[in-house]
Amino acid sequence: MKSLAPIAVLLAAVLPLAGCNNEANGVRISTEKAAPPPVAINARSEPVFYNGKTYQLDLSPAAEGHFDMAVAGMTAKQEKDAVAVATSSLRYFACPDGKSGQLSSKPAYTAGAWKMRARCV
Questions:
Q1: How far apart, in Å, are the Cα atoms of 68 and each of 5, 26, 44, 61, 89?
Q2: What's the structural domain count of the chain?
Q3: What's the mean pLDDT in 2-9?
Q4: Does 40 have pLDDT greater than 60?
Q5: Residue 94, domain extent
Q6: Do 49 and 74 meet the contact criterion of CB atoms below 8 Å apart?
Q7: Higher pLDDT, 66 or 39
Q8: Is the pTM of this model over 0.70?
Q9: What does residue 5 show for φ and ψ, rounded to 5 degrees?
Q10: Hey, CA dihedral for 73, 76, 81, 86, is it positive or negative?
Q11: How far is CA 14 from the centre of its chain?
Q12: What SS3 state is found at 110?
């Protein structure tokens, strides 16, 4: 009887696995990375907290994947800050995973706001 003990242990371990099969059961395993869904965004206006102050960001889609952006609440000397707020906010609100915001036009200060056009790259 001692010689049958290892066989019984082996059968107890193998029999539950015998019920498994490779038939389609609704689960698909793939090694290919799925493409991110296209970004669909409507025009929006958001408060953005940057360097201890809150600024107003206006973001709206434009032609060919570009976005018209305006950052209000900054002075005419804060171009660098306005670009930082706009590009990081674009990445957060509109760009698919792994993409970042990049300007596609030079920022202009008009009517108390920095206005520019940007896109996801």
A1: 76, 43, 11, 6, 12
A2: 1
A3: 71
A4: no
A5: 44-120
A6: no
A7: 66
A8: no
A9: -60, -45
A10: positive
A11: 45
A12: strand
Does some domain include residue 104? yes
Mean pLDDT estimate for the chain: 84
**Residues contacting 68, CB < 8 A, separation 6+:** 58, 59, 60, 61, 62, 115, 117
* Range 84-103 average pLDDT: 91
Question: Dihedral of CA 40/43/46/51: which sign?
Answer: positive
Q: Is residue 16 part of a domain?
A: no
CA distance 113 to 109: 6
CA distance 11 to 67: 65
Residue with tokens 């793939």: 30
Query: DSSP of 46-97, one letter per residue?
Result: EEEEETTEEEEEEEEE-GGGEEEEEEES--TT-HHHHHHHHHHHHHHHTPPT
Q: What is the pLDDT of residue 96?
A: 79
The percent helix, strand, coil of the chain (3-state, each to 5) is: 30, 30, 40
Three-class secondary structure of residue 3 per DSSP: helix
Residue 20: band (very low, low, confident or very high) from pLDDT cuts 50, 70, 90: low
- The reply to whether 102 falls in a domain is yes
Structural domain includes residue 74: yes
